[in-house]
Amino acid sequence: MLQPTLCIAAFVVFWAGVSSISPLQVLPFIVISPAIALFAVILFFSFIERLGKKTYSLHSISLFRAFIINWVTDQNAPLEKYLEEMGEDKDIEVTLLKFDSSKPKAAFIVPHVHPGPFKNIGSSLLPSLLKQKYQEEYGCDACTPLGILGHELDLPSQAQNHKIVTQIMTSAKFKGLIDLATPFVKVTDGPATACCQIFGDIALVSFTLAPRTTEDLPQELGRIIRAEAEKYGLKDALIINAHNSLTDTVDTEEHLDSLQRAASRCLQKTANLTTKQFKVGAASVFPSEFSLKAGMGTGGITAVVVQVNNQKTVYAVIDGNNMIPELREKILDALASLGFDESEVFTTDTHAVSALVTGRRGYHPVGEAMDQELLTSYICEAAKKAEASLEASKAGFLRFVVPKVRVIGEDRLKAITFLVDKAVKKAKQTLIPVFGLEGLFLILLLFLL
User: Fold this and answer.
1) By the 8 A CB rule, do 134 and 172 touch?
2) What 3-state DSSP class applies to 283?
3) What share of the chain is helix, strand, coil (3-state, %, to 5)?
């Protein structure tokens, strides 16, 4: 921002050299102009800094600088350091449903953490990171669908990711002993669909409002369904938000009663079924054609197939942030055409795909910027590979807590986002007046020589 002043000063020196003006006459200008420029810069930044302190008691400039560094260079450390300071410690719950045959076979890992806020910041990368680390540690496919929660529990840094990943890797060192399961059951109630399959005394439950918007669901819904599961003699439940349809209308709150009724009926119906021995197969594919900007996270597509008697069910998990409407139904139809009796599609809600493209959302939900036929073929490929690996298996379940994990809540995240937005607007508002007045003052000073 000192460049305009330096240019004017250089011009004055040149002008003095080609005119009859004495160098001593322009010396005051050369001495004073940098001071005026420095004052203008300080004034400009003070306007922005005062905005943050007045509104949120935050340092606007350092926060703005950290955002820019991440935006331009993808460095996450400066911004994550800032977020760490603003966070608070919480105990984070994790649910794990794993399957073993002669060796580890597959796993559903659901940490009670929202995978945000965006790009490579905080827990945005946690779904793919967890999948990668679990597969490296146990040599089997893993998936990380979204739990029942919202932005109230984002992690601020990679250090907190590491804390959760490390605890999960350690806690998962146990053998599955559950050898009986029910068939897969799907129940609808108005716009709500609930799916359930019971392994021993553990229910695997999922929700969707597709083709309506299925976004973040309140934690209270998860607590209600766990209590409902206990009514039917079950010990616990792993509960998943399918997060698989996104429209321009978000009316999730209006349909919570429907979701609760669908889940209750689904649990009751499933709990009355006879359990049988089961087989599990799993596979992952990583489509090279779909980038983060297109909406596909690095976790790719995971398919877990469960067979009970003659029923084969596909759980397809896509590492993305929601899906365009009706795509779920197309995928389910494609899987049915392959001979699978039941299926459901999930996304991880990874925010690694967010803030990478311009537009209203700042990201593409799965299918919006992808060849849908190609995407569907990849899901079918993963399902067929998983089917080919079916083996008699046993399930194991664990619910545990990772203590003292740093989190940053939704209100604080909104404050930060709003502050950066206001800082940009304030910069635009003050840029021309401050530096325009600086230029005008320098011109007047020049004429007074």
Assistant:
1) yes
2) strand
3) 45, 25, 30
Confidence of residue 3 (pLDDT cuts 50, 70, 90): very low
Q: 10 Å Cβ neighbour count for 368?
A: 18
217 three-class SS: coil
Distance (Å, rounded) from C-alpha 175 to C-alpha 396? 7
Distance CA 179, CA 182 (A): 11
Tens-place pLDDT, residues 399-417: 999 999 999 877 766 666 6
Lowest average pLDDT, out of 40-54, 273-287, 361-375, goes to: 40-54
For residue 252, give the 3-state DSSP assignment: helix
Specify the long-range contacts of residues 249-255, CB closer than 8 Å, at least 24 apart: 249/212, 249/213, 250/213, 250/215, 251/212, 251/213, 252/209, 252/213, 252/214, 252/215, 252/216, 252/217, 255/190, 255/191, 255/192, 255/209, 255/212
Instruction: Work out the average pLDDT over 104-121.
Output: 94
What is residue 17's predicted lDDT score, i.e. its pLDDT?
46
Are 247 and 155 in contact by the 8 Å Cβ rule? The answer is no
pLDDT at 168 over 70: yes
Q: What is the mean pLDDT of residues 340-368?
A: 94
pLDDT band at 11 (very low <50, low <70, confident <90, very high): very low
The tally of CA atoms less than 13 A away on the side-chain side of residue 421 is 6
Question: How much is the average pLDDT of 295-318?
Answer: 98
What's the chain's Rg over C-alpha atoms? 28
Question: Could you tell me the two tokens for 374?
Answer: 């190609």
d(CA 343, CA 331) in angstroms, rounded, equals: 9
Q: Which residue has the tokens 């460049």?
A: 3
pTM (two decimals)? 0.84
Cα–Cα separations (whole angstroms), residue 329 to 212, 301, 314: 12, 17, 14
Which DSSP category does 366 fall into?
B
Q: What is the pLDDT of residues 36-56, one digit of tens each?
A: 555 544 444 554 556 555 555
Burial class (CB in 10 A: 0-12, 13-18, 19+), 379: buried
- Residue 88 in contact with residue 407, Cβ under 8 Å? yes
How distant, in Å, are the alpha carbons of 21, 61, 180, 426 from that of 446? 12, 33, 90, 30
